[in-house]
Amino acid sequence: MNAADVPGVGALDMVVRYAYALARVVIVGAVAVSACAAAADDVSPQPSSIALPNSHGLSAATPMASGEPFDNAVTRIRGALLDKWNAAKTELRIDIDILAACRAEPDACESNAAKRIIAIVDIAQRREGRARIGEINRAINLAIAATSDKIQYGVEDKWASPLTTFTSGRGDCEDYALAKYATLRAAGFSAEDLRLLIVRLPQTDHAVLSVRHEGRWLILDNRRFAMLDAAHLDATPLFALRENDTPPVSTAALNPAPYLL
Fold this sequence. Notes:
Number of strands: 7
Shape: globular
Strand content: 5-15%
Number of domains: 1
CATH class: Alpha Beta
Helix content: 25-40%
Largest sheet: 5 strands, antiparallel
Distance between the termini: 35 Å
Radius of gyration: 17 Å
Number of helices: 7
CATH architecture: Roll
């Protein structure tokens, strides 16, 4: 991917972009997903813990769009989870633009975090097909030390941007997933071929990334280096979050205890 692949990248001044990136603060409304706790020194951590509030109020899954995977998952969301995903998408797009700008003008790139992600992309692009995806999955699992948001940020839940995660070198399950998302986008994968999944394991909930390759959906999980075919997913998909969704306006401000729809 080069700067021309991202609208407006070529016209953006690098100094302004990095100043904005350094100054930004991710502020998220109500907590929709709690910290993904995992052992910080474990390369392949235990399942992360996600607490979906008011799960007793979840409605039945809405029908998926034609051709969508994960047909048991909800795609139309509102409330706190919608706010988190909207904030995460904004951060993702900023980081994807910065990565594109750094690849186009590496001598002007002042973000060490971006350079580390680009190095992963460059190594991955020496491989073909599924091996390229596997290289990114493995490299990011190794690059990030599993750490709860409570330990790292002093809050129960924070969905950090990929560059924020690579700056600290620490994160929890959704931070791994978002970092893989941005890295795959930098490697040329389309947003249409990526889904951030909130899944239910036997004793906890967890975030992973899914990518479509040759018509099949693969699961990229910080718990393991090997990728799973979605047909063999060892969890129940709860929410499938898409970058190009146009979900209903959030009603979090109107609901003291917002439901996820």
